[in-house]
Structure formats: structure tokens, C-alpha cells
Amino acid sequence: QVQLVESGGGLVQPGGSLRLSCIVSGVRLSNLVLGWYRQAPGKEREWVAHMGGNGDTNYEDSVQGRFTIARDNAQNAVILQMNSLKPEDTAVYYCNIGGRWWGQGTQVTVTS
């Protein structure tokens, strides 16, 4: 059984940083496509970033240069490092593994 446990969300001021973690059990992450998505209030879920099985990364334009997706092989986890956060980054963030499994979501709120 595959389980994803997200953590790291919270309340932060504009310009601040957060590190989201998605620890996965039941499947090894190597060679799987890993992704992060987010859903703001009243909006549809949108793609934020992904890492291909070969390690290549891609980012949504608004987070390019501020967010970094990474694979933690030791913890079998996918990480999203978020820097220079803006109020418009406020959303529930979800990890996705292999295009198939979803985390439970973690709230990120950016406000002064």
C-alpha cells in the first residue's frame, strides 16, 4: 500500500521560506515522475513543479527561480523548497507520485 505523508506547511510573511516534504512508503521514488500541485481558495488545482525520472525539473512560470523540487533518496521523499514567498502562493499544496498517488495536502499561507 502506497502512503504519502506531507508536512512543512504553515504561515509565513512575504519574502519568507518554507520547505515542504512528502515522505512516501510502499514504492521507491527512483525513476518515477514526482510533482507538486497547489489549489488556492476558489480555484482549480494547478501544477507547480515536477521532476522526471531522469532528474530533469520543470516549473510553472510564476515559481521559476523561487521554488526547487528535489528527491531525498534517504527518506524516500520529494521536497519543495519555496523561497521569496508571495501572498499569491497561498494555497493547499499536494505532492503527486508517478502521476497516480496524491498526498493529503498541506496549507501554505503567505501574509503580513
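The record above closes out task 2.4. Task 2.5 opens with a second protein, given below.
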Amino acid sequence: QVQLVESGGGLVQAGGSLRLSCAASGRTFYSYDMGWFRQTPGKEREFVAHISFSGTTTHYADSVSGRFTISTNSQKDMLYLQMNNLKPEDTAIYYCTADKGLYGRKWHETPPTMDYWGKGTLVTVSS
């Protein structure tokens, strides 16, 4: 059974930092691109960050570029999102995802249709 389980969410003040983690199990993700999306009530799930299966290429939404960093471990069973200088507008449920396809338009479709999703972790940034 494939599972992606997020952790690390919580309440933080504006300007603070959090590190999200995603534990992958049930299969190997060596050939999967991985990433993070987020969603707030009443809005579509939106792209946050992507990392290629090789770990050599990353992409970020403009709204988080320069503040967030995506990474994985060598075994590709852990995915991370380091979030610095958090803003109230970063408040959302953050979802870990894995997809067999290469990065492209699929990662920006509404709604996104990735192969695997976690159940999410809530990040709340207070002003």
C-alpha cells in the first residue's frame, strides 16, 4: 500500500520558519518527481514546489520562491519543505505528492492530477 504521510505543520508567527516532512512508503519513488501543493478553504489546490526524480532540478511557485526550499534524502523515502520568512498568506493545508511524469503543465493544472497524494498537514501563520 502506497502511503505519503506529511508532518511538521503547526502554528507559527509571521517571519518564522517551519520544516515539513513527507514519509513515503509502500513502493520506491526513485523514478518519481515529487512536490508540494497547498490548499485553503474555497480555493483550488495550488502548486508550491517540485523536485525532479534525480534531485537535480527544482521549481517553485513565484509566491514562495526565495523563501521555501524543497529537498529529498538519498533513498527518496523522505521529502522536505523548508519554509522561511512565513507570511499569513502561506496559511494552508500542505500536501505531499509524487508523480511518474516529468515536470510540466500537469503540475499547474486545476485541479492537479498527480499519481499519489498525502492527506496533508496544516500550516497556520499568524500576523
